[in-house]
Amino acid sequence: MKPGPKPKPTELRVLDGDHHKSRYNLSEPRPGSLLDADAIPPRVQNLPEALEMWQFLAPKLVTMGIAGDVDRYALEALCVTYAMWGLKPSVQMTTKLQAMLSEFGLTPSSRTRLVGALPREQESPMAKLLGG
């Protein structure tokens, strides 16, 4: 892991007007289709607290454009970690849970760093930059 702040997604850098256009990662991977919030993973179904967390978060993250189908396992890990933290809270588990929550923009400060999916009818700033 590299030291320093996490890099901004390319689309956010374009919106912010970053002057270092040569440093744009135009090949940045993008998640595929949005997560199917109704497809509950088996590990989540077996833990009531994890199931409650999935049913609460998954639809909201999909609506925000944050959770793609490739994020399913990360969200599953978040829900299971939350359930385990509820059973046996510890400083280590709390730290891990806070880090996972930040990855999905589920803390006030981390939300300011996220870029959600644009509605389908709007053209993305990256497409405008690339001319199509």
Task: Supply database-style keywords.
132 residues
Describe this structure in words.
The chain has 132 residues and is mainly alpha-helical. It has a domain at 33-118. The chain contains 7 helices and no strands. The chain has helices at residues 10-16, 42-45, 48-64, 72-87, 91-103, 108-111, 125-130. Helix 3 runs antiparallel to helix 4 (72-87) and helix 4 packs antiparallel against helix 5. 14% of the residues are buried.
Helix fraction bin? 40-55%
Envelope shape:
globular
Biggest beta-sheet profile? none
Order of helical and strand elements = HHHHHHH
Q: How many β-strand stretches?
A: 0
- Measure the end-to-end span: 34 Å
Structural class: mainly alpha
Short description:
With 132 residues, the protein is mostly helical. The chain is built from seven helices and no strands. It starts with 9 loop residues before the first helix and ends with a helix.
Topology of helices and strands:
Layout: H1 10-16, H2 42-45, H3 48-64, H4 72-87, H5 91-103, H6 108-111, H7 125-130
Helix pairs in contact: 3-4, 4-5
